[in-house]
Design brief:
The complex is a heterodimer of chains A (about 160) and B (about 180). Chain A is mainly α and about 160 residues long. In chain A, about 65% of the residues lie in helices and about 0% in strands.
Chain lengths: ~160, ~180
């Protein structure tokens, strides 16, 4: 890109921009192909809207199914509407996706053997931190000498001398 | 001794990072490995036979390759698929994913056709059932129709050597033992 900009006369930069936009048009065309939406009842629609932000788009993995415009996300939204209209529960819809794409589609993975480390890891780290902190504190309290036998008069004399 | 713990943590992090450096974080392991290939019943390109279903994949190991004429990385792997077809290593079934007949036909005419059959998944439902999240993806099925491996992204000579070839060479009895 840097080299391209060097080579391109700066007075024609808008033209370069236009060319780039034209290049992206065929990609746009891929997105448009959408099937007619499946009608849902009000409660199904509410469940649909509540579920989508918690599901990961497999194509652009930092986006949820609610926000992604990737063709696969469009297809999966259609599929989810179909399942909900058919009367599937939220759990059944999620299982449908997990069966095909794995736990990874759930932003909140289930608690099972393969995700134990994920769920309990932070707690484990906290326990290690507490253990280390306690050990350090104990060492420090042992290192401080007992201060009961300080000669108060001598201390006062020293302080005064200093002044 | 004071630096023992930081040193251990440092070495641990170096090992962790070195391990993950060569890993693609966008790869997601398929939950379908070891399971029977999901059902489908779809028209084929050229219509010989007109329909194809999951039962037609059984009998011998096959490669099931999802591709599309609009897919850029498919062009990268295509020469390798052609080579595999030439050497007749394993039958390759193409799944034309979210595409049109005409575009697929033109694409195959232009780049060569390594496929035994091309199944048309124009809506993309088969792709969803097979857990496809981007083309190209290639599944290795054993003779019983069980998915043994999935390659996300272009099939390469290295992936073939490391993952596919051992599966094809393994005695068939291994897959018979596991009830599917």
């Amino acid at each position: 890109m840097q080299r391209l900009l060097h080579w391109w006369p700066s007075s024609r930069l808008p033209i370069l921009g236009l060319l780039l936009v034209m290049l992206s048009l065929p990609l746009q065309a891929q997105i448009e192909r959408e099937r007619p939406s499946i009608p849902l009842t009000a409660s199904q629609q509410a469940r649909y809207s509540a579920m989508l932000p918690n599901l990961r788009c497999m194509v652009c993995q930092n986006e949820s199914l609610a926000s992604s415009q990737a063709p696969l996300a469009v297809d999966l939204r259609y599929q989810i509407r179909e399942l909900l209209a058919k009367g599937d529960s939220d759990a059944q819809v999620k299982q449908y996706l997990v069966d095909r794409y794995g736990q990874y589609v759930l932003y909140k993975p289930r608690f099972e053997p393969s995700t134990w480390l994920l769920w309990l890891g932070p707690l484990l780290l906290l326990m290690i931190a507490i253990f280390i902190a306690l050990r350090l504190l104990r060492q420090r309290s042992r290192a401080v000498p007992a201060s009961a036998d300080v000669d108060a008069a001598a201390l006062k004399r020293l302080l005064e001398e200093d002044r | 001794m004071r630096f023992a713990l930081p040193a251990i943590i440092f070495v641990g992090l170096v090992v962790l990072f070195a391990y993950n450096l060569n890993r693609d974080p966008t790869l997601v392991p398929s939950p379908l490995i070891g399971k029977p290939a999901p059902a489908f019943d779809l028209p084929t390109l050229g219509g010989q036979p007109a329909q194809m279903s999951v039962a037609d994949l059984k009998g011998r190991p096959v490669l099931v390759n999802f591709f599309a004429s609009w897919c850029v990385s498919c062009k990268i792997e295509h020469p390798y698929l052609l080579q595999l077809a030439r050497e007749d290593r394993v039958p390759i079934i193409g799944i034309d994913y979210k595409d049109t007949d005409g575009a697929a036909r033109q694409w195959l005419a232009q780049h060569g056709d390594p496929y035994r059959r091309v199944v048309l998944d124009h809506v993309g439902d088969m792709g969803i059932n097979w857990g496809v999240y981007g083309v190209p993806e290639t599944f290795v099925l054993d003779a019983q129709g069980v998915i043994r491996y999935k390659q996300v992204g272009p099939m390469t000579a290295e992936a073939w050597r490391r993952h596919v070839e051992p599966l094809l060479q393994a005695p068939q009895s291994t897959s018979v033992k596991a009830p599917s």
